[in-house]
Amino acid sequence: MALLEVKNVTKQYGHKKVMDSVTFNVEAGHIVGLIGPNGAGKSTTMRAITGLMSYTSGNIQFDGQPITFEQHTALDKVGNLIEYPAIYPNLTALDHLKLYAMDTPSPANFDDLMRRTQIDGENFGKRKAKKFSLGMKQRLGIAIALIRNPKMVILDEPMNGLDPQSVHDLRELIRSLADEGVAFLISSHLLDELQKLVDDVVIINDGKIIKTSPIAAVFEHDQVHYQLVTNDNILAMPILVDQGWQVEDENGQLLITGPTGPQDIITVLNQHNLTIEGLNTVQANLEQSLLELLSTNDTEGK
């Protein structure tokens, strides 16, 4: 059984459905990206899962227990950072952790939590939050989400305000916790960063789930691409085509799509005495794949 189960959840305001039969699961130890354009229903879905709003029909269960606007028991083992954390300007980071841990029987170790989230260095017990940068407040919000030693953490735009090093460190923290069995549901508009982190994706548009899959499956329609330059591109093109690759000339570079790796390309061209002057892998791009998927979905819906 999945740790989180969202089944046919609909949220309706009048005739408008902001969630339309939303269904997906999150397994223990998995990092799931909830992605879609602005207004697609990401934040609404997260708010429903965390019991912050009611829903019209369907059901949500965490660890076998129901979650509704009235029933919150299951959320004792769910941490969350939805939008911006509630930060009190005259409290230190340590004060915040003590405050949010007051109703927690066995909170996380404060020193360890501060170290893992890298909040305020050695001054975390002294400096007031009103002096914190946006990135530091964001890291404090993540630490608060982890205070209950949760089985699952829900993060909405957790990378907001973080510098590149902090984003890298946050990825490492999330991955280490996932390796320990903690599940994550993360929404972020920084798709390139999300691509480096998540195991699975749930793609939502107009309140409907249009795809749920492992992250690798998002790119299944994209075979591996390579950019190639040889000493004779005109001669190289038909040779590669005969071997089963698709080849296009793009501003003096050969864009190659095919079923096998670069070593086979090198071997074939060497057999024909062609010199390779440059060979690069073109990485699949989550943002482009998402746009293509949304475009296909819009076309099919018309």
From TrEMBL:
Domain of life from the UniProt record: Bacteria
SMART domains: AAA (SM00382)
Keyword match Nucleotide-binding: yes
InterPro entries listed in its UniProt record: AAA+_ATPase, ABC_transporter-like_ATP-bd, ABC_transporter-like_CS, P-loop_NTPase
Keyword field: ATP-binding, Nucleotide-binding, Transport
GO molecular function, one term: ATP hydrolysis activity
Keyword Translocase tagged: no
Domain ABC transporter: 4-231
Family membership: Belongs to the ABC transporter superfamily.
Name of the protein this chain belongs to: ABC transporter domain-containing protein
